[in-house]
Amino acid sequence: RRPLWVQPEVWAVSRQLQRQQQPKFERDLFYHGTFRDDFLWGVSSSAYQIEGAWDADGKGPSIWDNFTHTPGSNVKDNATGDVACDSYNHLDADLNMLRALKVKAYRFSISWSRVFPTGRNSSINTRGVDYYNRLIDGLVASNISPMVTLFHWDLPQALQDIGGWENPALTELFNSYADFCFQTFGDRVKFWMTFNEPTYQAWLGYGSGDFPPNVKDPGSGPYRIGHAILKAHATVYHTYDEKYRQEQKGVISLSLSTHWAEPQSPGVPRDVEAADRMLQFSLGWFAHPIFRNGDYPDAMKWKVGNRSELQHLATSRLPSFTEQEKAYIRATADVFCLNTYSSRIVRHATPRLNPPSYEDDQELTEEEDPSWPSTAVNRAASWGMRRLLNWIKEEYGDIPIYITENGVGLTDPGVEDTDRIFYHKTYINEALKAYRLDGVDLRGYAAWSLMDNFEWLNGYTVKFGLYHVDFNNVNRPRTARASARYYTEVITNNGMPLPAEDEFLYGQFPEGFIWRQFNISCVPTVCQALGLGRGGQARVGDFHRPVAGNAGALVGVWEASSQSAWLLHIPKFR
């Protein structure tokens, strides 16, 4: 039972710390098991990142079209999404990839400006609508469930010209667009998401200004936009609930994102509180109003309000909701959709007071452990997946959870991507532990991404795809990577069941593997760490652990017949 004097958010973190303070050796042990029978395995993409055809067949420009066409944009190699994967013209190829993967769901977004070129329902583009109808029909015919995101950052430029999300009229314009999508596609689409990663939309678009519309207002801009997004989301939810749910019987939510926040010193209360603040300012910012009480987390209200007062402002930079608005926003999601990729080590800090900033309001510093395997974007820390899923359960109850994005970006364009296999294997395994060992109501997992695509400011230099795309070829041919075959195997097995006793495991280790053999009787602690008793067995992948200093990992293989163990060194991600 939570003591009355402990903040509920901090209590959730402290309970996890008590439950999960196992040694790293134990934390990283591999777990064999399967997910629920109806587990929804999928892959994800988004319209601007894959479709191309930026001005084809009547499509209107989006803010990302305008941004990437403006000289001096900060996209690597001045890349654009003008062609991208050219999915608009290669629908059959995309469907073939999805069938080959044997996924049960495909998460994609609809381009608002492809359906409504001016952003308004007075300008319906029938050829754009036809593209999505053909995509959805192809998915349904293949027994693949469409999971549709209504807004994945590509606002019609015509609506940005009238102020974008800072214009209150956007709420009703977005609702009109969503209403059209429900009416047009809802007979086949049963899983909707209103927004993708609104935290990044608000901060990168209106705080740091790195993303379009490139507004640099770090102290107030993100909070204003977040406020507008929550109102728009709630409006669309109620439209679906009142007009379509009874007949279409779908679910609706939004995809939220965060890294796991690990306190630098779990025994230091201020670090524990700082770790929770990071989660509240990233995930709780939108989850708390929707899944708790219609209002922002106390940690946000306290910190932003206090710092605003110290900055001699008349009111908090964090807007407030009326009681009527709180009631309208609360409980406007049927499931919890999560995008997550990595973890952070967090400690308390007291940053400068001015100029005001959303980042400084959190009063913390975050970093990645240099011993974690490196990738092109983040360092991998798979154990954070399990802890994050448990935190969500502690914070918001036993709501069904779907992981709608998880993946790894690499610079190597090759198809023998053993690093990506290792990433997905370990992250999915931590999700499996959360489901089987901790009772988290996990219902689905979608890998990011189906194929290499336009990766925002990284252009085409970072590869997330299970399929390789040759962007130097006008036809954009797709080639399955080794990770695609591995993911299909995981889907077929519905997880990671224990291999049969006499099963031979096929595969290839990464270049640079270091093999070592030793007699297990000489190192009894290794046997204990592997979880092996007398006559026990472990197979490749049954045990792994990070190795400090070289950002690699060890995999243990126990050979019962010779009473010996092999330790295999996996080098760091490229």
Automatic annotation (TrEMBL):
Q: Spell out the residue ranges making up region: Disordered.
A: 352-373
* Organism encoding this protein: Sus scrofa
Q: Tell me the enzyme class.
A: hydrolase
- EC number(s) from the headed UniProt entry: 3.2.1.21
- Protein name per its UniProtKB record: beta-glucosidase
Q: Where is the composition biased (Acidic residues)?
A: 358-370
Give the top-rank taxon of the lineage listed in the UniProt record for this protein. Answer: Eukaryota
- PROSITE patterns named among the record's database cross-references: GLYCOSYL_HYDROL_F1_1, GLYCOSYL_HYDROL_F1_2
Q: Which family does it belong to?
A: Belongs to the glycosyl hydrolase 1 family.
Q: Which residues cross the membrane?
A: none
Q: A GO BP term, please? A: carbohydrate metabolic process
Active-site residues, as the UniProt record annotates them: 405
User: Which is an annotated GO molecular function term of this record?
Assistant: hydrolase activity, hydrolyzing O-glycosyl compounds
Quote the subunit structure annotation. Answer: Homodimer.
Q: Which UniProt keyword terms apply here?
A: Glycoprotein, Glycosidase, Hydrolase
